[in-house]
Amino acid sequence: MEMGPVPPPNKIIPTAKKNNMKDHYAEFIAKLMEARTATHMMHLMTDSYARHKALNSFYETIQDQLDVVAEAAFGEYGKPSSMAISSMKVSVDTEEKYLRDLRNVVADAREMCKSTNIQNEIDNILTLIDKTLYLFTLK
């Protein structure tokens, strides 16, 4: 079965208003799960040892971080009735662009968030993305 491309960043969290925060967080968490899978695929496909190690650290760390955000958001706003992720296809040498686009999405999600405790956890995800982008610069 052929998978479609990873969605562009502006499609990860639509600009249209959400019905409620529960739906917003369900979509955001699903996109973080998608990012975990996409970066794991990139980790396996890269020819760069530095990127291989940086992506390994990213996909292992993002799992725990997205779990904390999900549990905090669902505890505050309620558990969603459904979640979904899209099929994806990743390509070699798209890691940096993907993470920069993901950073924009995460920053937008943080701005929509009103709870400071959840904002702090989203900040940790932004830090992880920034750290990974820095590690990409190493040889």
Give a written overview of the molecule.
With 139 residues, this protein is mainly alpha-helical. It has one domain (18-79, 89-136). Helix content is 67%, strand content 0%. The chain is built from four helices and no strands. The chain has helices at residues 21-45, 49-77, 95-112, 116-136. The longest helix is centred in the middle third of the chain and has 29 residues, at 49-77. It is globular. It starts with 20 loop residues before the first helix and ends with a helix.
Features:
139 residues, mainly alpha
Topology:
Layout: H1 21-45, H2 49-77, H3 95-112, H4 116-136
Helix pairs in contact: 1-2, 1-3, 2-4, 3-4
Helix content: 55-70%
What is the element string, with H for helices and E for strands? HHHH
What is the residue-mean pLDDT, rounded to a whole number? Answer: 86
Strand content: under 5%
Describe the structure in brief.
The chain is mainly α. It has one domain (18-79, 89-136). The protein contains four helices and no strands.
